Amino acid sequence: MNVDTIDERLALFRAMAAHAGVDLPAIAAEAPQEVLAAAQRCLGCRDAPDCHRWFDAQAASENAENASASQAPVPGFCRNATQFDLWKDGETPSQAGE
Question: How far apart are CA 79 and CA 98, in angstroms?
Fold first, then answer.
């Protein structure tokens, strides 16, 4: 069993957010509690090995296809996929219900 560190897990969170096209510093300035909740979801996720494999596959695909696959969607196993979609669309959950 491979246990990653909090720093490694948060790096995955930041990398997935960046891949999704989310500007985490801007969102954190606007909705810090939502970013904290999303980071905590990532910290508690049991799919970190899948996340690592997914990023490795993305890197291999980008190298093989000269970066044409760089905009693959966030994988379905990601506990923050919906959150990243909301943020990418410029919404926070509190705005989504308005």
Answer: 24
Token pair, residue 18, equals: 């960046």
* 3-class DSSP state of 81: helix
Nearest to 83 by CA among 30, 32, 17: 17
Residue type, 13: F
Chain-centroid distance of CA 12 in Å reads 7
- Find out whether 30 and 92 touch, Cβ atoms under 8 Å: yes
Asked if residue 88 has pLDDT above 60, the reply is: yes
pLDDT tens digits along 23-41: 999 999 999 999 999 999 9
Count of residues making up the chain = 98
* Nearest Cα to Cα of residue 13 among 45, 61, 59: 45
